[in-house]
Amino acid sequence: MTTLFDAAPAATTAAGPRPRLYRVAGLDISLTGTGIATTGGTTRVPTKGRRKDSIADRHARMRHITDTVLTEVGDVDLACVEGPSHHSVGGSSWDRGGLWWLIVSSLCARDIPVAVVPPTSRAKYATGKGNSRKAVVLDAAQHRYGAVLDTDDEADALILRAMGLHHLGQPLAEVPDGHRAALAGCQWPVLPHL
Prior knowledge:
The chain has six helices and seven strands. Helices cover 40% and strands 15% of the residues.
């Protein structure tokens, strides 16, 4: 089984040079715990806020999350972000949407192609069911990729990264056909340089 933390394969094979490995980041964007998965592993950006926070406080919080994401992501071939959940309740939908666009816009400004993965596609790729709960996705990510994950935010980010790599022809691990079908429901950018 291939895991997230395996060393890169040898540079050549009997058939000649091996194609380079793509650098893909997975981002589960959230005001309270943005999950990030890159070649180096997974991490989470935890923050707290209150409804009565000032505009300056809310802006500083979103800027902190965005700056941390951009630092962790670095220079990648593709960033896979979870699309907005249009049925989410609680919290501030304005702030959630604003943070999502702030991060996506910042990635685009760096000429990093962005893929948008609907939450149901992320769950289906991980578990085979698009309505799977976060704990089930966490368990599936730990089992399939052999990763130690502290939170479901990190698990979601790892699944998003795995989907991007799979789309590029370099899956982190084998997944059943029913799981792989979730790739068709994503918005993939044109990648002329790859």
